[in-house]
Amino acid sequence: MNRWRPRVLAALLPGALLGVLPSLACADELSLGDTAWILTSTALVLFMTIPGLALFYGGLVRSKNVLSVLMQCFAITCMVSILWVLYGYGLAFGDGGAMNAWIGGFDQAFLQGIGRETLKGSIPETVFSMFQMTFAIITPALIVGGFAERMKFSAMLWFSAVWLTVVYLPVCHWVWGGGWLYEMGLLDFAGGTVVHINAGVAALVAALVMGRRKGFQDTAMPPHNMTMTVAGAAMLWVGWFGFNAGSALAANGDAGMAMLVTHIGAASGALAWMFMEWTRHGKPSMLGVVTGMVAGLGTITPASGYVGPMGALIIGLTAGVVCYFSTAYIKRVLHVDDSLDVFPVHGVGGIIGTLMAGVFVSMLGGVGLAEDMTSGHQIAVQFTGVAATFAWCAIASWAILKVIDATIGLRVTSDQETEGLDTVLHDETGYNL
Amino acid sequence: MKLVTAIIKPFKLDDVRQALSDVGVKGITVTEVKGFGRQKGHTELYRGAEYVVDFLPKVKIEIAIPAESLERVIDVITRSASTGKIGDGKIFVTNIENAVRIRTGETGVDAL
Fold first, then answer.
1. Would you call B43 an interface residue with chain A, using a CB distance cutoff of 8 Å?
2. Which residue among A220, A285, A288 places its CB closest to the CB of B51?
3. At residue B60, what are phi and psi to the nearest 5 degrees?
4. CA distance A332 to A326
5. Which residues of A sit within 8 Å Cβ distance of B?
6. Which of B36, B46, B52, B54 to mutate to test the interface with A (most CBs of A within 10 A)?
7. Which residues partner with B57 through β-bridges?
């Protein structure tokens, strides 16, 4: 994501116009290796949403709601894909002119001007756009976990579309599209802020605005199919190599190291959570292992291009422990029904990962700070990125939800919730055994 | 004719079925059920949320027998289904007013 930054950014240009910068390497020439890798990464990241996340979430809900989750993930995939090519890509990565600190523009609406020969760095711009599209898809799909089992399908579609436009596109532009956080030197390699804090905060806000599921904490609501969840989790791990290593936008050593540290993050996060459960509850659980894995992956994500293996180990272990306590805190102390724990895993993970990126960039095998950057200043920048994302996402998500609630309503009725969304919203059942 | 309904621990089903077969009981209907009596449930843990699961899986068997066989059948079921621990289950005996073999139309004890 940031090959050019350390040297070129420090002094030269008033506004970053990604892809137009003459890189010190050979950026304007098509690289077959880079293209092949990013084509592959795109497929891997799409695979993370469908079916990875779909199965992961699907198994965690009750059987009467399994299709509603799969449906949400699929529908978001389709809808975001279209919105991205209509206007999303340009607003996220285009040149916003005078407004470029905050948002891109409409020059690339309908992907005009992007043909078979158009390049973005060393890869075709079609590939870059597709790759980024898969990130725009998975972020609203993650939010599904916060309002699972009680949201109307129409409300979910409206929320996802508006949230993508008002929250995801701007934040993406700020961090990766040449906006103000990019200018400030925020280190977010693959989406600690853009994806994980965004999704986590939106899920938390949705859980608070919509309220708890009927019977929350009085009734047992165990996952209906742990085998499905584990299968989905494994797909997330594998797909994450595309998510993080693909964010190098090149088939090179940066990608290699990103893959390595991502893997360490997953493994150490899983082990940390596993041992937390083992010592505190007496037995390690399957759900704990996969949740710790996701926590580790989400936390390493912003740091994945900047840290070394040992830094990743510390990051992953920290993720497993901190997210473990956060989950218990949100559920049992605050009694918030963030149904699939999106905030404590992705939100908290994204926050600590973005902060730790600022720490471990300069130690234990990190790539080192940018020129003119001090460790203290970098950490301050990381804080700024976290806070800005958190604040904008929280406020905007709240507003969007309130407007939808006032117009078409967010939640299904109590009876509908009891009967189950699959039959009520989709006239289907997941299992006809 | 008597209908003997027994709720037993699932892993005891094979023992009971074999024991009944040994004393000449030719037919049996089995249903998977959930329930509890004095046996406490167990705790399951999902991401830090502990759930006490009250209902325990059990197996319900139903057999229709001539009244004369009742004592022997109860004795057989009791011995083969017992582990000595809480949760072994219960046996209920009800009267059957009539029984019919669908294929032949036989009624009464001939239908059993």
1. no
2. A220
3. -105, 125
4. 10
5. 217, 220-223, 277, 281, 283, 285, 287-288, 291, 324, 327-328, 331-332, 341
6. B46
7. B34
- Asked if B42 has any chain A CB less than 8 Å from its own CB, the reply is no
Task: Check B45 against A277: CB less than 8 A apart.
Answer: yes
- Number of Cα atoms under 13 Å in the Cβ half of residue A337: 17
Return the half-sphere exposure (C-beta side, CA atoms, 13 A cut-off) of residue B29.
9
A283 contacts B45? CB cut-off 8 A: yes
DSSP per-residue string spanning A42-107? HHHHHHIIIIIIHHHHHHHS-GGGHHHHHHHHHHHHHHHHHHIIIIIHHHHHS--GGGTTT---ST
- CA A168 – CA A163 distance, rounded (Å): 7
Q: pTM for this one? A: 0.88
Q: What is the pLDDT of residues A245-280, one digit of tens each?
A: 999 999 999 999 999 999 999 999 999 999 999 999
Provide the percentage of residues in chain A whose pLDDT is more than 70: 94
Residue type, A95: D
- B52 interfaces chain A, CB cutoff of 8 Å: yes
Alpha carbons within 13 angstroms on the beta-carbon side of residue A40 total 17
Give the torsion sign (CA, A431, A433, B3, B7): negative
For residue A108 the two structure tokens come to 């690339």
Q: Shortest Cα distance from B96 to chain A (angstroms)? A: 32
Dig out the tokens for A343 from the structure: 């905030």
Q: Are B44 and A220 in contact (CB under 8 A)?
A: yes
ipTM higher than 0.90?
A: no
